[in-house]
Amino acid sequence: MTIALRPGATASHLFRQVFATSLLLIGALASVAHSAQPPALTPPPKSLQLQAGTLSLTANSSIAATDQALLPLARILADEIFLSSTVKLAVKEGTGSPGDIVLQLATPADATEAYQLTIDKQAVVSAGNYQAVALGTTTLLQLIQADGDQLNLPKLKIADQPDHPFRSVMLDLARRWHPLDTLKETIELARLAKLRYLHLHLSDNQSCTFTSTAFPKLATPGRSYTQAEWKELVQYADQRGITIIPEIDMPGHSGAWVSQAPEAFGTVDPETGKAVSLGIVNMVNEKSYESLDILIGELCETFASSPYIHIGADEIWAENLKELPEYQPYVKQHGLTLAQEGDIGELICHFIVRVNKIVRQHGRQSIAWSGFHHDGTKNVKIPHDIIVMTWDTNPNLIADAGFPVINACWIPLYMVPSQSRGPTAEMIYDWYPQKFDGWYWGEAIDLDPAKPVLGAQICMWEQRYNEVIPILQERVFALNERLWNAEPAGSFADFAARQQPAQQLASQILYPLQIEVAGLLEEGRPWFTDQLEVALSTKIPGAVIRFETGDRWETFPTADSPVYQAPIEIAQTATLAARVYDSQNRPLGGTRQLRFSKIEPAYTYRLLGPIPRTGWEQLPDFAKLTEFATGVAGRMTRDRAQQINRSMFAQLPAVGMIDTRAAGVFNPHAIELNGTLRVPATGEYVVKFVSWDGQGRLLVDDQTLDSDRDREQTLTLKQGEFPFTLQHYFRRDVNNLNLLVKPPGSDKFVPFETMVLPLKDF
């Protein structure tokens, strides 16, 4: 998708630079014909031999699949080429003709991800299995340079394969519902970034999204997906070379599904017939294991292509199980002597062993989060065939115990809304798979090089669906660069330049429409003060754009939505959702949603840094910090507070909230807000700061108040108008500042912003 300035608009009218794309450049090739310079590809292949000359494809060319099994991939490739170039290639089975693209399965077949790409009289992608051929087609896409109705490819030979087999992203479906289209867009993005897996967190305390035939009450109403939808999604992913890994978190993080099916996984009071609130799988009830065997069997059937079942196994609180009458008989029967004496950890180890055995009996391998007793106990030895995703544990302890390790650490792999999106692409590129780090760790831990890491995964915890693609697209190419090749290919600046064509390609395939917005307050933020004019366009021949506007984020166009004819005028806060449809009224690409907020400017702001890793114990002298951005912030509105809170797992108080969230800045920083305060009457004003993880300072009329957390202080103010400065910084997690004031003679706090005047000039 392209967003650009309309004629006559100023630079301040450009909305969200991150979406800016160009259809002119499709591959990584600026000009390679007869050039000694190899094309810029992400990731760089292991071997590339550039030849003289160019292979040109036209609308008469085809994509030939030498094996019928590759026809789905050939059709997908044809669609991707069409979306990115508007050139439509036919798909056929066979060896192809000169000037064709050929997909072939090499013999003998193998399970590696190695592929070969040879471009001469044909463009031939060859590999020992479907997934590896899919990787080769992604490289081919990056090489294509469109020139009108012709596609040019440099003649070359590539032999390539990744160094780390586990390259993945995770979506948290249990805490935040995601439309099926968002999951498909994530799969397409994962394919274009050459990832291998999509891990889906299906259940937690908030909901269970998996629909079970055996346990129909398991799924949370309104939050789950049908078996038909799951199977459609699995096929969609398989055809793109992406394998979905399902996770049913257990025995902890299971409150939703245990409470919905207590007779199978929990406990029912025999006297009342009602569920006993456990918040955890009943690990001392044989019925639970019988039910888990059935449930895991269903998971294996639904996600048939996955070699793995993720069993969770982290953050387990199970002390309440000791109160159950079946506790002592069960642990005694199974020889859990430590559990008999009160060590619940031994029961947890026993549970993990039993569940892993069930997974193995269904022909799959278990993955678990770190956090369980990996050493086991004297009575229970945990098998080392369980793969451990390490997120908060010293990886050397896990590896020393004999477990395969996947890096899923907070830094730079956790994307949590409270962090305002979390680590940047540069942080990911400067990281390496054997480096494990967290916000609360004193320093990063390197895994011994002799203990290999299977790979790594970006974890999208608690994110709303509309944030998924913007966050992931910015980061997945950097992730794969560091997993594909053991050594980085140059600096981050080198990578950033090299990845741009791939980013543009992804944008055009995911959202083949262009958006021009006039009337925005400032670059990077969807804010306006008067009225917006939004123009939509697509370069897909014969296609139309259908759109909807509405008050809610959950606004989606359908095949019956209005067809875009002329620029759309927006005068109030609204969501605009648009999608391209072909001549048969079938959707092309995904839905682009934009939320435009009408605001009243109240502050100018400055962003400052850097902030030390461990933060400050006291607010620093802002005059000694470095300014790296400036802008205008608005008075908090109900809509803006809802926007902030809709992405937060733990809701922040809306009353008195100050907007400290700057556009495009996602990590700890300091912010200074400047405005004008209107004091209605002379007297003492009680000021209350509220900040979960930060500090604040208010400077007004030669008085200064410093605060941390919830604290009340007094200012003596004269009636009149005074300039003021509000300084704030957040340490690691939650960027929030609420400021309340109690005027003289009142017993109630009101938002500080009731005394802040609108900006006159901005």
Automatic annotation (TrEMBL):
Residues 164-486 form the Glycoside hydrolase family 20 catalytic domain. Its EC number is 3.2.1.52. GO terms for biological process: carbohydrate metabolic process; glycosaminoglycan metabolic process. The keyword Lipoprotein does not apply. The keyword Hydrolase applies. It is an enzyme of class 3 (hydrolase). GO terms for cellular component: membrane. One of its GO terms (molecular function) is beta-N-acetylhexosaminidase activity. Keywords: Glycosidase, Hydrolase. It catalyses: Hydrolysis of terminal non-reducing N-acetyl-D-hexosamine residues in N-acetyl-beta-D-hexosaminides. It comes from the Bacteria. The active site is at residue 315. Residues 39-161 form the Beta-hexosaminidase bacterial type N-terminal domain. Belongs to the glycosyl hydrolase 20 family. PANTHER family: BETA-HEXOSAMINIDASE (PTHR22600), BETA-N-ACETYLHEXOSAMINIDASE (PTHR22600:SF57). This is beta-N-acetylhexosaminidase.
